[in-house]
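Lecture notes, continued. The same structure-token format from the folding unit now serves as the input rather than the output. Read the line below as a description of shape only.
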């Protein structure tokens, strides 16, 4: 969801692991349910380029099965 939103110029942020129990009553989430993360979405105040990023090639950041065996890409 976050990558698809970024491609449309929508920002998001992963909020998780700590303090989520306090958000349950604010959001009306039943106590019996577990919350693992909250991901807010919104339009940035300044345009950010609709997902245009200069990324390293996949083979430089991903490995196949073992370190130093570049993933083809």
């Amino acid at each position: 969801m976050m990558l698809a939103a970024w491609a449309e110029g929508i920002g998001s942020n992963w909020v998780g692991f700590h303090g989520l129990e306090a958000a349950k009553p604010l959001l009306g989430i039943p106590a019996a349910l577990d919350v693992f993360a909250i991901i807010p979405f919104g339009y940035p105040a300044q345009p950010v380029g609709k997902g245009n990023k200069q990324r390293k090639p996949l083979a430089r950041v991903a490995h196949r099965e073992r370190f130093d065996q570049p993933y083809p890409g």
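Point for the exam: The two ends are 23 Å apart (CA to CA).
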